[in-house]
Amino acid sequence: MAEYEGIKAIKILANMNRNYRIQKDIPRVTIHFDAAFDSRNFKSAAGLMGWDLRGELLVLKTIIHNNISSPFAAEADIQNKKPCFQEIIFQHIHRSGNLHAYRLAKDALDRGETFYLMGDELKHHIFASERRWLRNPD
Prior knowledge:
138 residues, alpha+beta, 5 helices, 23% strand, globular
């Protein structure tokens, strides 16, 4: 009887359906974000920098916002963007670990400059050509 039960168990295992979920390669990036605020002109600038998993700089982006009442309004807006992402984690980084993004935002505010650079355009940008931000500081 023990042999029969063993055969029965094998037969059940052979008929089992197995479902495998294939996870597509979802690109993972680290984005550093900071904002600078000009209280005299009620403007803010956001600086974003994106790195891949190897620490290579992928993208630089700055955005100028007008009619901003406080620096809190400038940084709080990112929380409203959460539903736009499949997966997103926010972590606080001390200013000393986020100097690149802060400097990018501050320079954009001083110059009144908005840009979005990636690929070859990024390689020719002054910040990248100075090799200041080619590696993720983490």
